[in-house]
Amino acid sequence: LVSSAGIGTIAAGVAKAQADVIQISGHDGGTGASPLSSIMHAGAPWEQGLCEAQDVLVTNGLRNRVTLRVDGGIKSGWDIVVAAMMGGEEFGFGSIAMIAEGCIMARVCHMNTCPVGVATQKVELRKKFPGTPEHVANFMLFLAEEVRTIIAALGYRSIAEVIGRNDLLRPRGNSSVRTNVPQPAVATGAVKKNNGPKRLAKAAHADLSKFHAESPPDEEVRSSWVGVARNGNAHQNAPAMDDDILAMPDVVDLLQKNDGIVEKQLDICNMDRSVGGRISGAIARQHGNYGFAGKLNLNFTGSAGQSFGVWNIQGVNLRVVGECNDYVGKGMAGGTLTVLPPSASTFKSEDNVIAGNTCLYGATGGEVFLSGRAGERFGVRNAGCQAVIEGAGDHLGEYMTNGTIVALSKIGRNVGAGMSGGLIYVYDPDDEGLKMNKMNEKNVFRVTTEAGKQQLKGLVEKHQKHTGSSVATAIMQDWDSAVTKFWQVAPLSTHSTDFVAASSGAEAPAAGGATVAAKVTAVAAEKPPRSSSPPSNRSQMLGGSNP
Fold first, then answer.
1. Measuring CA to CA, which residue among 432, 430, 422 is closest to residue 396?
2. Is the CB of residue 4 less than 8 Å from the CB of residue 25?
3. Contact 354, 384 (CB under 8 A)
4. Strands annotated E in 39-141
5. Could you say which DSSP state residue 515 is in?
6. What percent of the chain is predicted at pLDDT more than 70?
7. What is the pTM of this model?
8. Distance CA 539, CA 417 (A)
9. Contact 364/379 with Cβ under 8 angstroms?
10. C-alpha distances in angstroms, 511 versus 421, 437, 452, 515?
11. Model pLDDT for residues 29-80, shown as the tens digit of each residue
């Protein structure tokens, strides 16, 4: 939950809904790829959100049901102790852990030019990466030593003794010594007169009374929740479908023998979330990520819940006749996910959504075939999956680093934002072009190389085979003409591959007889004159016979 006013109400709600961990994220920190506006204006300080959530949960007797985790620019042992006193039990580190392993915060994570080889696919830059796991571990040891020093100076033996003890906090005084180690009263000048809370002009009207208490909490109440949820078992909303599948005798036999094929017909509904995740985990524990030699084919009918096919592994093939929710194929590493509408449906698949938002988040392998449209951010951070869809919302292929996505119908704006690897093919029979950031214009081509054509044709054929798609069938029936109507989004790292004709694009005929280079040049040449008023849409339409 992003720290903001009213977060306590939301925290109480998700605690009642059997959340195991509530993470409070403050406005500090964040990815180096974030725009300045996102960094400066997202959320409130984590202290505000943590104190409100803690107060509401304790008051309503819900604190023992959840673990409170906090992050957002936490960098020191002092931050950890303060967060613990406000009720935090777990503490997240992002930016500071990256810095410990060598990140210099160049803030070019999305440009594939990281000077120390952290966020890049370029081999020559990755060789410059200086970090080791020992660097991060060493930093954490120093952090723990600072925490130990602070709580020892306060007279406590463990951090568990100060969790929820906001009575130990006070606003910094006018004559306070700026140090991360608590000081005796004489050293801090507490004996002096007029040592009220330090007042800063920008915080003169801030009410800090909610951040600390005048008296310690009831110890019996405090001890009833400290560490209870964290050291207990995870909540179970309902029996998991994966457990039922893993208990089936033929599935047990398949996993033990590591050979053969098992096929199942099952019903699914939107309460069945993360289907396939535990199955892939069980296979990986026994055979590793790539050692499973059998095949488990699971055919579902209905509406799948969120994260269908999450972490899918080699040898597991999941098929849904119906529809899926958000996060299809999140983190998948292998196997095949297929989603198609019922055979009796009369609507056009390319005009109807069949899967939700943020599919393939962080996928590293496998294949996905969706006979219908996907939501927004399809393929975000895709790192190796091959996918064919029949249209998508905005931000297709965002932050993509590897893999291939083929879209056989209309897509939204901001294609390939932050994309540093992999390829996107978009079918554009009406020659409308792609809406994308102007910086990406130079990375759009027609499919002119033989390797690119064969890759695209192979994926469309697979899509037709797995889904029976009428769109794919129509394309394959007139392939020689259809292939000229595909756009290819290819970031700089792919320009030297056989799939992309970045240097010879001007010689390749595009739809309508014009050349790719001529189209791009025409778009650039015929921009409207500059205006003193800001543009209404920062996206740039690329392509089209009459730009």
1. 422
2. no
3. no
4. 67-71, 90-91
5. B
6. 84
7. 0.71
8. 11
9. no
10. 26, 22, 17, 8
11. 666 556 666 666 677 899 999 999 999 999 999 999 999 999 988 999 999 9
